[in-house]
User: Fold this.
Amino acid sequence: MDQRSELSEFLRSRRARLKPEDVGLPDFGRHRRVPGLRREELAQLAGVSVAYYTRLEQGNAQNVSVEVLDAIGRALRLSDIEQDHLTHLAKGKTKKKRASACRPQQVRPALQQLMDSMDVPAHLLGRRLDILGWNRMAAALLGDLSQVPPQERNLARHVFLDPASRSLYVDWHGKAIDVVSILRLCAGCYPNDPQLTALVGELSVKSEEFRTMWAAHTVADKGHGVRRLRHPVVGELTLAYETLKLPEEHDLSLVTFHAEPGSASEESLRLLGSWSAEQPVRTI
Assistant:
């Protein structure tokens, strides 16, 4: 992925979503050839020249300061996550960070033992949303990944290319947008990751919905929330999920699911645990 193009398209997409009234500017009703703020309006809000902002939106971020990026972010009403994404796109990463994107990620035995000891579904996500490890409950809830080739164990592939995911997630569209938004963050941090580029290319070719969502340039990092699932064995469940970052394990996150105490979903999750205990054990 070309970092200059990514920066250009991200800034254009964020500018297009704003109207003059959103940022306190008068709208005199003049016809606008494109949606959103004009470049000169955005430059005025950010306190930079139109020529300077135009160069930045064209992908030329050479020598841009953090202060200018912050001013442009405020003018565009960026969230904290979007601001970080803009900074990654404009400033890039060190050679050390770029090299780390190519290193294979592994699950320490102690982490796998921790997941195996949990009585709730849990799985471990790496960069690019690769699914690196899981416990029996996660296999029962989301599908048995031991039957998937290691190179294809990826959350984005599961959501967009596995037909079973459309039945599993009650709000499949919302889940898909979340996945694309997180993948966009990964692309901003590691634009030179060949495996990530290949993944995005594969999904773009095989899924029109992915192409459309990817072109929207949404970025987010949803660490927690509620997900409704429709399981073929125990029926519909409403589960809360928590994403726990592992600071000493580069780009690894532990994701767990649990039900509200006393709810029907808690009983369904308990039944799922009993059912999964009766299934044959398969190794990762």
Remarks:
- The CA atoms of residues 42 and 262 lie 51 Å apart.
